[in-house]
Every structure is written in structure tokens, then in C-alpha cells.
């Protein structure tokens, strides 16, 4: 029940007002809402427990949490963009990898 599933939280603003929506990436259909993040987390724990309980009762397969993130990606970009990034990294006195990580984390 406490496996590290990927929780996705979105803040929603619509005709019913502001609320938070959550779903687990690996658990199709396991979702809930809450007026704030604390309430959403409580509701998501309850939803996950119920979702898993139903799957176990029916003998349905339960997916494992995603755990295949190595921290390494291969990305092809235009030469002109590569040059721009490399020049900016050089001006900052850091590696291209560090510069790109900084920019992606913003």
C-alpha cells in the first residue's frame, strides 16, 4: 500500500471554483480532489487504498511504480541552439550540462 507511485497534482480553476485534482500515473482511474493540498493528499491515500483493495479482490494485476529514471537523456537539438547554449554556459563559467540543468529546473 505504501509503494512510491507517481502522484500528479493539478490546481484547477473552473466554474465550481478553485480546487486540487490528483491522480497516480501508474494506477489508471485512481483519482480524487480536495479543497487544498492537505485534503487532496488525504483523499488520494484513501483512493489508492480503495483502488488497490478492489484490484486485489478481483485478482487483477497491480502495476509496479515507475522506477526507470536514470537521470540521463539523449536530446537532439539544432546546431544553432547548441551554440547559443554553449556560449551562454561559457559566459557563466559553467559546463553546458550544468547550464542546461539550471535552465530546465526553472
Unreliable stretches, pLDDT < 50, 5 or more residues?
A: none
Shape estimate: elongated
Integer average pLDDT: 92
Number of helical regions: 3
Our measurement of the CA-to-CA distance between the termini, rounded to an integer number of angstroms, reads 33 Å
Provide the helix percentage: 40-55%
What structural keywords apply?
3-stranded antiparallel sheet; 106 residues; alpha+beta; elongated; single chain
Written account of the structure:
- The protein has 106 residues and is α+β, with helices and mostly antiparallel strands.
- Helix content is 43%, strand content 19%.
- The chain is built from three helices and three strands, in the order βββααα.
- The protein has helices spanning 37-58, 79-92, 96-105; strands at residues 7-14, 17-24, 31-34.
- A three-stranded antiparallel beta sheet has the order 1-2-3.
- α2 crosses α3.
- It is elongated and about 55 Å long.
- It starts with 6 loop residues before the first strand and ends with a helix.
- 9% of the residues are buried.
